[in-house]
């Protein structure tokens, strides 16, 4: 119980610290302070109406359509031009450009991207790139973080092997469920990820949660993706086959994940994707090897989830570009101004 309370306190302190940093940066941005940069790539996952849930460990991945519209409006007021992701390399190389630019990306191919996000982008005439995971679209790969959230939602007890034998966790409270989710999240990168996903799926089925149904309900299939990609504002990018932490795979497996994912997008759209988003995108999941593999696979750029702005003048690694997350916990337009200023990345 003490561990649960301590973890809850840590989350609250971290959230407060981030909020404080964003508020300070927003105020400084209003006064004209900003980091010199050429542009920014924004990343989203789910875009859909808000639902009230006491336990929602993936809330950071959800923003509302209204907030997306507000974010676009605020960036337009800040003087940003909206560009396609595949234009970014040329824009970074253009030494004469003065106005900042923004590109929007969405990971995983969620169905709400077409249902709720696209109308917002249409109204604002803003292009977007959606990164497709082949295994999700073909219903062969489950989404472990969505499965974990669903199975913990209504269960009072979880039995799971975190690597040292089966344990039983009491998860009657929201704090207990959050602590269990954090342990699952940590375990995902401590062992073979495919084996971990199988264990998650097995535990979920024991609690009458069906992982395949979650994938079917949440993500677009090939037919939907083809219709979606036919829209003039929409481009599709690669996001691997099984959504693994690529740096934890051997080189041939990592290369295969990238190339097969690009093949799949090309089969759907008839156009070879020029971009790839590394799954998870943080340092443990992506290394210099993946940067090299992405270049060798023929992509013109690759994006991470490392936060930051694009600097230009040859200072950007086109195969490790940073992105700014529009986070579900911080859905205020002034925070978009703060992020676009680059100041939070200095704090």
Beginning-to-end CA distance, first to last residue: 33 Å
Which overall shape is indicated by the principal axes computed on the Cα atoms? globular
Count, helices: 13
Portion of residues within helices: 40-55%
Give the low-pLDDT segments. Answer: none
In sequence order, what are the helices and strands, one letter per element?
HEEEHEHEHEHHEEHHHHEHEHEEH
What amount of the residues lies in strands?
5-15%
- Counting DSSP E segments of at least 2 residues, the number of strands comes to 12
Give me the secondary-structure topology:
Layout: H1 2-30, E1 39-44, E2 46-47, E3 62-63, H2 65-77, E4 81-82, H3 88-93, E5 101-108, H4 112-124, E6 128-132, H5 134-137, H6 144-154, E7 157-161, E8 166-170, H7 174-187, H8 193-206, H9 211-218, H10 222-229, E9 234-238, H11 251-269, E10 275-277, H12 288-296, E11 301-303, E12 324-325, H13 333-341
Parallel strand pairs: 1-5, 1-12, 2-3, 4-5, 5-6, 6-9, 10-11
Antiparallel strand pairs: 7-8
Helix pairs in contact: 1-7, 1-13, 2-4, 2-13, 6-7, 6-8, 11-12
Task: Please characterize this protein's 3D structure.
The chain has 347 residues and is an alpha/beta fold. Helices cover 45% and strands 14% of the residues. The chain is built from 13 helices and twelve strands. The chain has helices spanning 2-30, 65-77, 88-93, 112-124, 134-137, 144-154, 174-187, 193-206, 211-218, 222-229, 251-269, 288-296, 333-341; strands at 39-44, 46-47, 62-63, 81-82, 101-108, 128-132, 157-161, 166-170, 234-238, 275-277, 301-303, 324-325. Strands 1, 4, 5, 6, 9 and 12 form a six-stranded parallel β-sheet that branches. The protein has a two-stranded parallel ribbon with strand order 2-3. Strands 7-8 form a two-stranded antiparallel sheet. The longest helix has 29 residues, at 2-30.
């Amino acid at each position: 119980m003490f561990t649960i309370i301590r973890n809850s306190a840590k989350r609250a302190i971290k959230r407060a610290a981030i909020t404080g940093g964003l508020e300070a940066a927003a105020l400084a941005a209003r006064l004209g302070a900003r980091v010199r940069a050429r542009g920014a790539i924004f990343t989203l996952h789910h875009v859909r109406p808000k639902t009230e849930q006491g336990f929602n460990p993936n809330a950071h991945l959800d923003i509302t359509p209204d907030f997306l519209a507000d974010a676009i409006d605020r960036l337009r007021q800040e003087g940003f031009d909206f560009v396609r992701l595949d234009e970014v390399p040329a824009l970074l190389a253009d030494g004469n450009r003065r106005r900042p630019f923004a590109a929007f990306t969405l990971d995983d191919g969620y169905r709400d991207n077409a249902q709720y996000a696209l109308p917002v982008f249409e109204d604002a005439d803003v292009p977007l790139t959606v990164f497709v995971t082949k295994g999700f679209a073909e219903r062969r790969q489950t989404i472990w973080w969505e499965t974990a959230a669903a199975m913990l939602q209504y269960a009072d007890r979880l039995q799971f092997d975190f690597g040292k034998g089966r344990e039983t966790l009491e998860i009657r409270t929201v704090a207990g469920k959050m602590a269990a989710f954090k342990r699952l999240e940590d375990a995902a990168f401590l062992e073979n990820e495919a084996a971990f996903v199988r264990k998650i799926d097995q535990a979920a089925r024991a609690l009458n949660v069906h992982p395949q149904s979650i994938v079917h309900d949440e993500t677009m299939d090939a037919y939907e993706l083809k219709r979606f990609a036919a829209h003039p504002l929409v481009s599709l990018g690669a996001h691997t086959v099984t959504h693994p932490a690529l740096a934890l795979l051997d080189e041939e497996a990592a290369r295969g994940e990238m190339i097969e994912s690009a093949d799949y997008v090309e089969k759907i759209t008839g156009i070879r994707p020029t971009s790839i988003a590394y799954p998870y995108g943080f340092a443990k999941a992506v290394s210099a090897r993946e940067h090299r593999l992405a270049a060798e696979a023929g992509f013109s750029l690759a994006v991470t989830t490392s936060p930051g702005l694009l600097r230009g003048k040859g200072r950007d690694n086109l195969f490790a570009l940073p992105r700014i997350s529009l986070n579900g916990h911080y859905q205020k337009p002034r925070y978009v101004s703060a992020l676009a200023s680059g100041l939070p990345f200095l704090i």
